[in-house]
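Exercise 7. Given the encoded structure of a 179-residue chain, write a plausible sequence.
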């Protein structure tokens, strides 16, 4: 199995034409359904188990919802033509303090679905000119268009769903060799 690289090591080539925006938006819209499918039928105690100091599957799903306020803020910043977007909290304090492992998975997924749907409804209304608005991304230290940022969100979603799947696979494989 290929080891997934760390999120902060990723680099991006942002060159999508505006006409691809509906397809990128479809990925963002579909993340809650894919998260729900990933956790379906898995016992709560398994979903809430951390592996090797990493987040549990529930924490990965909860993290995506934790970013909703940042996503809404950044969308507003793009539309206001902000020079620089708000930086993400790279310590992930909100997720670390949220205690997602104690929250029923169905509630995590439903909250994520509802908030993501609200974001997607706002994004669907944008014009071609609006998806081309550019602001500086603080971590990437480069200008990004709104379409690039939505693609970035989709990639981040997929990163955490893949991490959640890795956590579940590690649990199903059983304990590793004595160490």
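Solution.
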């Amino acid at each position: 199995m290929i080891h997934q690289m760390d999120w902060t090591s990723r680099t991006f080539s942002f060159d999508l034409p505006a006409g691809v925006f509906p397809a990128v938006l479809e990925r963002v819209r579909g993340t809650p359904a894919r998260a729900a499918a990933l956790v379906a039928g898995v016992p709560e105690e398994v979903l809430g188990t951390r592996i090797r100091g990493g987040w549990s599957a529930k924490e990965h799903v909860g993290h995506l919802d934790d970013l909703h306020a940042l996503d809404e803020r950044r969308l507003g910043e793009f539309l206001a033509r902000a020079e620089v977007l708000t930086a993400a909290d790279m310590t992930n304090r909100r997720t670390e303090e949220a205690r997602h492992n104690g929250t029923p998975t169905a509630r995590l997924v439903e909250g994520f679905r509802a908030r993501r749907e609200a974001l997607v409804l706002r994004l669907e209304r944008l014009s071609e000119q609006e998806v081309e608005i550019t602001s500086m991304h603080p971590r990437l230290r480069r200008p990004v268009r709104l379409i690039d940022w939505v693609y970035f969100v989709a990639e981040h979603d997929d990163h955490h769903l893949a991490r959640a799947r890795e956590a579940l696979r590690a649990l199903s494989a059983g304990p590793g060799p004595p160490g």
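Remark. The two ends are 21 Å apart (CA to CA). Students should compare their own answers with the one above.
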